[in-house]
Amino acid sequence: MKRMQWSEYQDRVADLDREIRWRFPGDASIHLIGIPRGGLLVALHLTYMSKRYDVINDYNIGRDERNDVVLVDDVLESGATRSHWFGALRGSLGGKAPLFAVMVDKSPCYPGVIPANICSMRMTSKEWIVFPYEWEEDEGKREAVYRAGHPEHTGEGTT
Known about the structure:
Elements: E1 2-3, H1 6-23, E2 30-34, H2 38-47, E3 53-55, E4 69-76, H3 80-89, E5 99-105, E6 118-122, E7 129-130, H4 136-149
Parallel strand pairs: 1-7, 2-3, 2-4, 4-5, 5-6
């Protein structure tokens, strides 16, 4: 288990901010959808980086085609959460897939998982990350439950 400190978290949010704004030049709004729990916090913290960000949800997405939507999460592992959200959002975004931005991308650990479009850190280890807004004891329990249900997630490898 690796604990991420607030200073590293802030640096990683700044990395995401730079990359997202590079992908969307100009002054137009950039619409963020934060995946509940960690993704909501990352999306919220991004809004403090630029006035261009607007956090949206399924109540204010609308049915118009938008090219400026970023789905935000704290970590990408098996890809199940992303697949669920992409499927849920596809009709709301006129059939277009949003960009996917994560703080930590572990897709290299899982064959067949598509990497995030934007990430701040790519890991080649299944090591569990405890973000600074999480309680280490609770995350240790969550990791054990997660690994029990996903025996392929051994945590082996190098970062």
